[in-house]
Amino acid sequence: MIKTWTFFIILSLFPIFIFSQQQSNRLISKKDSLLPGMSTSIPFTLENNSAENRTYDISVSTSNPQILPILTKGEFQIAPHETSVYLVPLRIATETSQGTYTVTLNITDRNNGISFTKISKVTVSGNRNISLTALNSPEFVKAGETIKANFLIKNNGNIPEKFILESKNAIIDQDSEIFLSPGETKQILISRKTDPQLGKNEFQNLNLTVYSSDDPKESETAYASVKVISIQPSEDDIYHRLPVSASLAFIGMRNRGDYNDGFQGEIYGKGSLDKNNKGQIEFHVATKNPVEYSSFTQYEEYFVNYKRDHFLIHLGDKTYSSSFLTEYSRYGRGAEVRFDINKVSIGGFYNHPRFFRDIKDEFNVYSKFKIKKESEITAGYLYKIPRKEENVFAISRLDSNAHLSYLTGKFQISKNLNLLGEVSYSKTNKTEGTAYMIQAQANFERLNGNVMYMRSSPEFAGYFTNTSTFNGGLQYRISKRLNITANFVQDAKNFERDTLLLAAPYRKFLQYGIQYSYTSKGTVMLYSGYQKYQDRLEPKQFDYDERFYRLAINQKIGNFQINVEGQLGKTDNYLTGFSGTSRLYTANIGFGKFKTSFNLYGSYAVTSRYQLKNQRQVYYGANIISHFSPKTYLSFLYQNNYMPEYYFKDRNLLELLFHQQLFPGHEFDISGRYTLQRGDLANKDFIFSLRYTLRLNVPVQKIAEYTTLSGNIGNMGVKKISEVKLMLGSHLTITDKEGNFIFKNITPGDYYLEMDRSTTEINDIPTVALPASVSLHHKENIFNFGLTRAAKIQGHIQFTEPIEKNDQINSIQKRKKESIIIEAISGEQTYRKICFIGEDFDFTYLRPGDWTVKIYRNGLDKRYKISTNQFQFTLKPEEIKKLNINIVKQQTEIKYQQETLKVGYNEIKKQK
Question: For residue 895, what pLDDT band results from cuts at 50, 70 and 90?
Fold first, then answer.
């Protein structure tokens, strides 16, 4: 039944005579800024200057058929010497474009047949309106397949526009720019490749965003969510496991002319002992090194530590430390324990140093009190026992057992300022000593800085003795591009380091300057400063002071990182007693290509720092690391020599490393090196190693039991239910003659049950949606479903348009290809199609049951109505449901008021 729209609004539906001196400004404004889709009235001013009544016949026309007069014909009377306003009601179609149009009033006098016209201009405003709808996407895909999702975009405005398409996680399968006229729609396809190695089933979201190129801030975004089913699932383990690696290496070394080789074994593990990760354990076993120790080989080590909640214990080798002043770093074999009780921690350790001959044993106890999150105070006591051999006391600083007490504190004064400090007192049978340290750290918006000062007395029995040190750094940001920096370092002279490695040179260093970022990828730095380097070893290789200027430039050009530096200084050489200039120039270029990183280095120097004045030195080298695959990489390093300041440590001259993962859990490494050993300036040694590593996940706790999934496929009118293949993750099974199936020894977890349709008849369909999500958390789990015959929906979209006289948009509607969206829903299943008027549609392979079909307008003209926009019915097996969708143009019925209503004002005559 056609719904009748009845218009009763008097000022909009038929001529009204308003008597006044002049046309109202409010009526005049109606012609401006009209919006598409609205109805309005356009005023015309009419005058009767004669002395008799006039009756006129009128007709209305417009310059655009999308601007439709609601009344195209009418008549009116006007009294002598009166001025009236005639209102023409109009309807502006939704698709009317922005612009200026004309409305023409054709007037004929009934008495004498004289005709004349009046024209009024109307302006239709621009209206931007875009809609984006997720149209169609698969319910699921398998890992490795491509997700494809369709979206529908429509220009609901009246302005032709260029739209920009974007997606953050998918590929748009067309140009990212499209042009749509008013009312035009377009389907957009986006796609995303899924990872075939996906270990867990998951949902993946695809998104599409669209916005106008003229108005980027106004955007629309739509999403499509799709299940991705793993084809190689990594099933949850019923055991909680601990990662452990075990390796065996064959090592050979030529050490100062002597060759040695042998095997070294190593076991390392770190992880938790329970599924809640509360009990953390770490252990390491490295057997005796068959060659001379260097920085490139592993020394013998044994330790295990365990931490749980508020308790920690360590047994074996480690670097033990009580405090900065008393024992900053001492590698040895011992034990450590700590208890945390609310804000208080109590602990201690025993240590037998392995690489320091002056101390035999150490005992430490301490208590820490946490004031707040970043503030705490620690009080402790350290007891040192020296070795008693006769030749030791001659060079040892300890004349007897040493007692050291210390107090440390860390305080957060404000969010920008932190203070740290320590005081300590030591006592032996013959001496007493003290030491203190204070450090401050500041971090403000423009200013960052830190400063540390330490001093110890000549008789202090701690890590430092009869020395002081001062370190500090300051950076002030003048602007985003310009910084001022200053740094000062003064090393401590007397400290009790381990004898495993040699001592670094004594250094006193001051540097200050500016940093300027001239581009986002380029920085220039200009520094001035002073440095002192003094060799601690005998015979000394260098001892000099130097005042210098340094210029450095860092620039990234494409894939290349370039660093260039030049330094000019005046050097006072105390080793030889002469002074001179020192010049250094260095360049470093790094880039990556073909899964390989390259770093090239070169340096040229003319210095007066060492044995000769104006001594020339050239250094160059390269480092190449290539990852052929995630399982294979090769590393190559070469450097011709090193500056003498670094001879206290082991240095690589040539290194080749190759790593290969043979298969998961099994790895092979081969390495070879030419080195300069610590303390040596010229003699080269060679080290090579062959290593096999086995990586295990050792079960430490059983956290679940295996489960089973069984069920039955019921026959709901199909030919067979036997030999149907079902998949559950990586598990397969086939039904027996009665349709029974079972999966055994399944790890508990969430899975998707799938059916191979190639093992059923082409029109057979399960009674539940597959893949179906199943949660296996009980020992025995049951899932039943049936097989039936699929149904179908077919239909036709019919357009009915009654013939009306003077309908100016009939021709346009006949040419226009209108469409609607048809949606079929049953439970969680949803199917959508865009269907064109006058064409057939269908939905195939539907599961029997209750279905709802909804019809959406998809921007259908408001004057057209969908007779029935929703159907509900029950599909039976193999049923073909016929639907007819009728779209009709709504008829407009106008009812006239019986008498003409006049609204006016008395005419005010001019005063003579």
Answer: low
Residue 439 Cα distances to 451, 452, 469, 488, 570, angstroms? 6, 4, 12, 14, 33
For residue 386, cis peptide bond before it (omega within 30 degrees of 0) = no
* One-character DSSP codes across 295-349: TTSPPPEEEEEEEETTEEEEEEEEEE-S-TTT-S-EEEEEEEEEEEETTEEEEEE
Distance CA 515, CA 482 (A): 6
Are the CB atoms for 609 and 542 separated by under 8 Å? yes
β-bridge mates for residue 240, sequence order: 701
- What is the C-alpha to C-alpha distance for residues 877 and 848, in angstroms, rounded to an integer? 6
Q: Is this structure's pTM higher than 0.90? A: no
Among residues 152, 190, 186, the alpha carbon closest in space to that of 169 is found at 190
What is the C-alpha separation between 290 and 259, in angstroms, rounded? 11
Nearest CA to 405 out of 426, 421, 377, 434 is that of 426
- CB atoms under 10 Å from CB of 546, counted, come to 21
Q: How far apart are CA 299 and CA 290, in angstroms?
A: 9
The stretches of 548-667 forming alpha helices (DSSP H) are none
DSSP state letters, 715-769: ESS-S--SS-EEEETTEEEE--TT-EEEEEEEPSEEEEEEE-GGGS-TTEEESS-
Q: Return d(Cα 87, Cα 40) in angstroms, integer.
A: 9
Residue partners of 366: CB distance under 8 A and separation at least 6 = 322, 346, 347, 348, 378, 379, 380, 381
Q: Which helix (H) or strand (E) holds 11?
A: helix 10-13
Mapped onto helix, strand or coil, the DSSP state of residue 72 is coil
* Residue 907 pLDDT exceeds 60: no
Opening angle at CA 561, ends 556 and 567, nearest 5: 100
**d(C-alpha 689, C-alpha 140), whole Å:** 51
Give per-residue pLDDT as tens, 310-319. Answer: 999 999 999 9
Give the per-residue SS3 of 74-117: EEEEECCCEEEEEEEEEEECCCCCCEEEEEEEEEEECCCCCEEE
* Cβ neighbourhood burial of 554 (10 Å; 0-12, 13-18, 19+): middle
The number of residues in the chain equals: 912
Choice between 76 and 738, residue whose per-residue pLDDT is larger: 738
Tokens of 32: 């401006």
**Residues 28 and 53 sit within 8 Å (Cβ to Cβ):** no
End-to-end CA gap in the chain: 65
CB 191, CB 148: distance < 8 Å: yes
Q: Which two tokens stand for residue 789?
A: 């015959």
Nearest to 683 by CA among 635, 641, 732: 641
